[in-house]
């Protein structure tokens, strides 16, 4: 039977029987898929590490009727630092579940994989505030999966800059302070949060974390990013409640 060779990031693992796992993978070409990794829980198995949660590996897959079967797997990167804190682990689980729920395909899947690998690296190596990583992921992943908000100017009057703006989480548009007041909306972004919002959604991949933000602006950005992402998901995330309990 023909095999498929692809890199993949393990988003979820489900144990069954004594030593087997069913893993959910995000791949650049196939999108989000399920695969059976037989005997992968045995310490001597060559699949043990490569099929672990949040592990990025090169997989040799055999297509099946309902899912793939992992024939071989070689580790490319293990983000050991993620599990060093409850906050980091819960954020990674939240991001993985969101990626799985969106289930991107084609070019979107390849972009989502790069984004997740970047964010997992930032968590593992403690390169940024977890709230920054969370906001970056939420805004960028929604933008790359077809929900890019209109970020250039106020929808009603065309204003580009100002001390406060409102990001409508449902419509994905901006209202300046004056137009938001007329519409009965309370502004949820200040100038710093608006700058970061535009940067995250529009900049090239390698510069996505290349911005600075104050504590006050980050609080506003975090709230707006979360509301925007969760509004556009068609189902609730099981990991969300626990994440909020450890990373308020």
Which keywords apply here?
DNA repair protein RecO, 8 strands, alpha+beta, three-stranded antiparallel β-sheet, 7 helices, 248 residues, five-stranded mixed β-barrel
Shape: elongated
Separate helix tally: 7
What number is the mean pLDDT? Answer: 96
Number of extended strands: 8
Work out the radius of gyration.
Answer: 20 Å
Q: Catalogue the unreliable spans.
A: none
Order of helices and strands: EEEEEHHHEEHEHHH
Share of helix among residues? Answer: 25-40%
How much beta, percentage-wise? 15-25%
Strand ordering within the main sheet: 1-2-3-5-4
Distance between the termini: 49 Å
Biggest β-sheet strands, sense, barrel:
5 strands, mixed, barrel
Describe the structure in your own words.
It comes from Faecalibacterium prausnitzii. This is DNA repair protein RecO. Helix 1 runs antiparallel to helix 2. 39% of the residues lie in helices and 23% in strands. It has helices at 86-102, 106-124, 130-147, 177-182, 191-202, 215-232, 240-246, and strands spanning 4-16, 20-27, 31-37, 55-62, 68-78, 164-167, 174-176, 189-190. By secondary structure, it is α+β, with helices and mostly antiparallel strands. The strands form 2 sheets. A 5-stranded mixed barrel has the order 1-2-3-5-4. The protein has a 3-stranded antiparallel beta sheet with strand order 7-6-8. The protein has 7 helices and 8 strands. The relative contact order is 0.12.
């Amino acid at each position: 039977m023909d095999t498929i060779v692809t890199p993949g990031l393990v988003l979820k693992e489900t144990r069954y029987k004594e030593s087997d796992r069913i893993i959910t993978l995000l791949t650049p070409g196939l999108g989000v898929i399920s695969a059976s990794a037989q005997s992968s829980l045995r310490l001597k198995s060559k699949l043990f590490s490569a099929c672990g949660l949040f592990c990025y590996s090169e997989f040799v897959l055999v297509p099946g009727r309902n899912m793939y079967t992992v024939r071989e797997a070689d580790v490319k990167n293990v983000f050991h630092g993620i599990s060093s804190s409850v906050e980091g682990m819960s954020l990674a689980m939240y991001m993985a579940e969101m990626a799985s729920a969106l289930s991107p395909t084609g070019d979107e899947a390849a972009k989502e994989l790069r984004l997740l690998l970047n964010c997992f690296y930032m968590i593992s190596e403690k390169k940024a505030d977890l709230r920054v990583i969370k906001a970056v992921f939420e805004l960028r992943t929604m933008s790359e999966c077809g929900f890019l908000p209109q970020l250039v100017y106020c929808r009603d009057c065309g204003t580009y800059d100002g001390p406060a703006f409102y990001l409508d989480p449902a419509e994905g548009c901006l209202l300046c302070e004056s137009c938001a007041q007329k519409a009965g909306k309370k502004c949820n972004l200040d100038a710093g949060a608006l700058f970061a919002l535009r940067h995250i959604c529009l900049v090239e991949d390698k510069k996505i974390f290349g911005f600075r933000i104050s504590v006050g602006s980050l609080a506003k950005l975090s709230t707006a990013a979360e509301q925007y992402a969760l509004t556009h998901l068609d189902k609730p995330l099981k990991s969300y409640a626990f994440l909020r309990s450890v990373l308020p």
